[in-house]
């Protein structure tokens, strides 16, 4: 998700009637008033995952460089004398935004964009985002930040699901490992029984073995491996070898499933880190907008 291609004009025009509220809920601003604290805008960690970037970009009081993405945002969102980011209305704006038609579709489009940053996905996201109404006391950057934050929440839900699947496959792998140990113990016992025997006596050697078959797809409601069948029989060398190979085949299947879940988890984790960085960048821009708005009102 980049700002290349342009952030759309805010639907709130402050040009002729600049607001005087600087975020102080106790009353309007006065000349020389100190801008409200901006640290709350850097809080983008909604969700189950608590990891965040180690450092957030620091706001700069300098003007954006000509031709940069930041300058494009500045020109399209900042208005003379405006107070573009009002921290006192942030929570109310977020609640208002989430209740608007099309908001959930916009968050879903953002998730698709992070999974597949193709031109089609970018176009689909921008079409949905541009159709969102802007909060009465907010601006387009606040709306963008809210979309990103809710995308982080959903991505962390995906991470938790993948972790649960990994844990489930670990439990299935443990059950299969225990069954393989039973088969190996039966093999050792059969080796002892075969010692010193020849001909028909050797061919007639059997050993009792309890074969347990488990589902390799998922665990049961109790969180344990699902036992599909259990059967005790007297096995020869060949039949016991076949059952051992079947267990090893199941173990390989579980390893492959676990590897796919591990890959999916790592991809989501990378996506969440990218979202945190994007949110930090938007927060930085909002802080710069707030600082500039305060200067314009002094």
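Sequence proposed for the structure above (298 residues):
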């Amino acid at each position: 998700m980049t700002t290349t291609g342009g952030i759309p004009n805010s639907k709130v025009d402050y040009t002729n009637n600049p607001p005087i509220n600087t975020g102080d809920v106790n009353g309007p601003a006065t000349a020389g008033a100190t801008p409200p604290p901006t640290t709350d805008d850097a809080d983008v960690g909604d969700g189950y995952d608590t990891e965040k970037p180690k450092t957030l970009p620091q706001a700069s009081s300098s003007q954006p460089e000509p031709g940069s993405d930041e300058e494009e945002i500045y020109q399209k969102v900042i208005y003379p004398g405006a107070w573009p980011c009002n921290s006192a209305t942030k929570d109310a704006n977020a609640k208002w935004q989430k209740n608007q038609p099309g908001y959930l579709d916009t968050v879903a489009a953002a998730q698709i964009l992070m999974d597949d940053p193709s031109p089609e996905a970018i176009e689909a996201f921008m079409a949905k985002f541009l159709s969102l109404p802007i909060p009465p006391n907010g601006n387009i950057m606040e709306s963008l930040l809210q979309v990103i934050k809710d995308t982080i929440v959903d991505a962390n839900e995906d991470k938790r699901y993948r972790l649960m699947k990994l844990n489930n496959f670990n439990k299935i792998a443990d059950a299969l490992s225990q069954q393989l140990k039973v088969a190996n113990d039966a093999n050792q016992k059969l080796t002892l029984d075969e010692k010193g025997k020849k001909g028909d006596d050797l061919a007639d050697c059997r050993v009792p073995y309890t074969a347990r078959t488990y589902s390799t797809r998922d665990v049961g409601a109790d969180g344990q491996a699902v036992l599909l069948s259990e059967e005790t029989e007297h096995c020869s060398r060949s039949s016991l070898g076949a059952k051992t190979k079947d267990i090893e085949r199941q173990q390989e299947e579980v390893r492959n499933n676990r590897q796919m879940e591990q890959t999916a988890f790592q991809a989501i984790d990378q996506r969440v880190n990218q979202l945190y960085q994007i949110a930090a960048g938007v927060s930085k821009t909002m802080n710069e907008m707030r600082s500039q708005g305060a200067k314009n009102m002094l």
